[in-house]
Amino acid sequence: MVHASSSYVQRRVLWDELSHVGLSVEAWMIIGDFNIVTRNAERKGGRLPCQIAVLDFNDFINSNWLVDSTTLGHRYSWSNRRCGNKRMIQKIDRALVNHHWLNAASNWKFLDHFPIIRWNARIPKPGNIPFQFKNIWLQHVNIKKVVETSWKQPLLDVPIRTVMKKLKRLKADLKKWSWETYGSMSRNLKKMDGELGQI
């Protein structure tokens, strides 16, 4: 398990230490927060990542014959939780494995020449996925009442935080109401898709 420093100089020391560990192990997985991306496309928003740090990380991966196993799930693993042009998301969490690990772990499979842990496909969705307002809600007779009830509940704080907290609460209330009213949207869509296929 690693939690790499935000300083690329200190990360370089970590890469050296891990490389020495790699000399004395066979099946090997390094998992955690590496605090750096492998290419510019793994970061969205903010400044471009330090190219020296990116090269250092890629050199570490390649010289130790490691493969990134995190090819399923969300494209990005970290967010600065800001909005608009201040928002930044990037992939800094990953699980790197060597070929001994791949050979030793019989419960692994490959997709497009990349290894994927089987349990990776069954990990539930995280709770911090972006909120999506469903247009179908606007057609429901009770939507206005749900929003009004949630918004009118008292909440004491400074004005800007009050708005943020009310929006957060409204999001939770809408999700709960949607589940109680419509059930699982994805399951309903699959069911309708199957029915259309039969027609």
Commentary on this structure:
The chain has 199 residues and is an alpha+beta fold. It has 6 helices and 9 strands. The strands form 3 sheets. Strands 1-2-7-4 form a 4-stranded mixed sheet. Strands 3-6-5 form a 3-stranded antiparallel sheet, with no helix packed on it. A two-stranded antiparallel ribbon has the order 8-9. The protein starts with a strand and ends with a helix. The protein has 2 domains: 2-122, 4-Layer Sandwich (Deoxyribonuclease I, Chain A); 135-198, no CATH class. The model is unreliable at 109-124 (pLDDT under 50). Strand 1, helix 1 (8-22) and strand 2 (29-33) form a beta-alpha-beta unit. Helix 1 packs parallel to helix 2 (51-63) and helix 4 packs antiparallel against helix 5. The radius of gyration is 22 Å and the shape is extended. InterPro entries: Endo/exonu/phosph_ase_sf. This is Endonuclease/exonuclease/phosphatase domain-containing protein.
Brief descriptors of the model:
four-stranded mixed sheet; alpha+beta; 9 strands; Deoxyribonuclease I, Chain A; Endo/exonu/phosph_ase_sf; three-stranded antiparallel sheet; 2 domains; single chain; Endonuclease/exonuclease/phosphatase domain-containing protein; 199 residues
